[in-house]
Amino acid sequence: NAGVMQNPRHLVRRRGQEARLRCSPMKGHSHVYWYRQLPEEGLKFMVYLQKENIIDESGMPKERFSAEFPKEGPSILRIQQVVRGDSAAYFCASSRIRGTHEQFFGPGTRLTVL
Amino acid sequence: GNSVTQMEGPVTLSEEAFLTINCTYTATGYPSLFWYVQYPGEGLQLLLKATKADDKGSNKGFEATYRKETTSFHLEKGSVQVSDSAVYFCALLGSARQLTFGSGTQLTVLP
Questions:
Q1: Pairwise CB contact (< 8 Å): A108 & B42
Q2: A-chain residues within 8 Å CB-CB of B32?
Q3: Which residue, B29, B59, B100, B102, could crosslink B48 as a Cys pair with Cβ 3.0–4.6 Å?
Q4: Residues 6+ apart with CB under 8 A from B5
Q5: Does B49 touch chain A (CB under 8 A)?
Q6: How far apart are CA B65 and CA B79, in angstroms?
Q7: For A24-34, what is the mean pLDDT?
């Protein structure tokens, strides 16, 4: 049973470019969460999505960041006009509809903004 | 809001030493509590969990007990190995279904 998949694993962008991070949840999981880990910091919640719905985006920066989880395909975290402060590791997690709400994490995408 | 306070590191131990990493939390309601481990360059792996008061989570020799009276979930292991070197995160899952993490504790075990 494949785990949570994220790609790319490493992404380098220049200031002002766009970054697209993709996440495929575990089979049977319909809930996706994005977290950001800034250097020397813990993980911070960004957004919680179900298929075609954003449930909670209270942790998302107000500008330049957006997320989607379409009916078909992976969840996408999009960062427009990246700045150096966006450099971080971005982790996706997924969970089942029912159960303990335990979240399983992907390997992360490490974004570097030059 | 919810918060998790975790023992600051780094922690350096010799192989076979006893490990304790303290974790306390503030939350409304009845959260579930977790310990995650992160090896260099990798994502988080669930180490153990407890979903209600007095539950004890255990895995790979690690243990933690959900103490509601002291709002704590300390991680312990009786005899650490070099392979346990990693960053350990305490986390809680509240009703909003988002995990709140502590700042992480870097553990280094020397042979």
A1: yes
A2: 100-101
A3: B59
A4: B23, B24, B25, B26, B102
A5: yes
A6: 18
A7: 93
